[in-house]
Amino acid sequence: MANASAKNGNGARNDKARIWGGIDLGGTKIEAVIVDARGDVLGRARHPTPPTGGPGEVVKELYGTLGEAAQSVGIEPGKLAGVGVGVPGSVDANKGTLSHTANVAGGWDAPYPLASDLGDLVGGKVMLGNDVQVAVAAEYKLGAGRGHRSVLGVWWGTGVGGGLVLNGVPWRGQGSAGEIGHMVVKPNGARCGCGRRGCLEAYAGRACMERKARSAAKKGEKTLLFDIMRDKKRTRLSSSVWASALKQKDPLATRLIERAIEMMGVAIASVINLLDLEAVVIGGGLGSRLGPLYMGHLQDAMHPHLFITERKPAMRIAELGDLSGAIGAALLAGPQM
Question: Which CATH number fits domain 146-318: 3.30.300.20, 3.40.50.720, 3.30.420.40, 3.10.450.50?
Answer without folding.
Answer: 3.30.420.40
